[in-house]
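>> received
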Amino acid sequence: MTRLITGWASALVGISLALGVVTLGHAAEEQSEEQGLDGEVKANTSKKKSSSKAGKAGVKIKIDNMRAELGTFTDKPASSSDALLHGAISAKGQSGVWEFALGARFDAYEQSGTPGFSKARLDYTENYLRWRGEDMRITVGTQNVLWGRVDEISPIDRMSRVDLSRVILDKLPERRRAVPAVRLEHFAGDYKIDAVWLPVFDSAVLPHENSAWNPVDTVNGRLLGIGNVPGIIGAQVREDEHGSGGGGVRLTRSGGKLDYGFSLQRVRQSQPYYRAMPGLLTAVHPFSWVVGGELETQKGGATWRMEAAWSSDVPVTTSAFQFQTERAFDLVLGTEFFPGDGETRATLQLAGHKTFANMPIMDRDEFYSLNGELEHPFASGRWRANLRFSAGLDERDLYLNPKLSYLGIDQHEIFVAAHLFSGAAQTLGGYYKQNDMIVLGWQAKF
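>> returned
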């Protein structure tokens, strides 16, 4: 523990020095773009803002964000602490109708106790070349592809690369990473056509094999989503990663009283499904057709959102321990509002899933949940209280994430939080029920 604390202290000193030194670059004129409710960057379609005329050339280099967390497990008998150090840097530039982005991130994880581990990882963020026309833009390279409108559980968000390194400890945008893609976006008034091709498949970012957040437990014979599987004790785990990731087309309309969209995808989801064989678990990513629909409107002082998706090939394991794929349907209804027109923000989502299996399966073929977030700033915005939660409606499953943050230092946040789990064996809360944790952290976004 002494070594861990000393290392973190040194890292924080280094961060402070970096924040003072990294002021390089020429400020580029900011793009006239807005962050949409569905999580993706939407270009304003007016000719003034999407003009193909030469813009002011420039390059901007900056540290995007930094974060450090140290957590203590309260229930886990063997592991005692969990630590994270994260940083991301980017360079963006523009010359006429051309834009580029270069970016990288660094993540270091450490878990003390038995089992313990230390792991450092470099990864790409957005690295692309983009051509921007009057009503179109074409982007080639690694980029964020976040389709969908609802928070936390988006059934049409299938092309983004999932970050499972800390399961659900972070909010949805922080659990998604850039993917290698070729993307064409066409704007026509209130309509947008978004076509994406993933030429290279890149699977989800997984925790270390000894991490308390690993969805595979070969020591005790457990799989997240299935529960106890004694036959996998001591099994080797391998990744079946090859070929392309697929692609899709999405048509959306925004700007009216009712925003809506339709999408068609033929994709391999980055989140793995584990196919079990004697002594071996293989992480597979089968192709699936996904037909999606989405709605968003404002009424009664609240924003209402809906997403639905039909999938042709969802992987499952039969009771005879055979791997196969089945059709499935997902529906999410969500709302966001400010109670009493005050500063408190509330987000609620009701989610349901149904797998149409033609024989008994080990997976949960049907489940329903209520999840959301409550957020309240106080003391003139210098403090913020936050609660994220997820609760199963058909089976006992509970995750709570209370958080108290100090925001009195510009662009910085110092926080204390807790992650609490409970539930039945097949649920997320039941799988991680010994991983209750208290966290002290700091982050800065620039």
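>> The chain has a mean pLDDT of 88.
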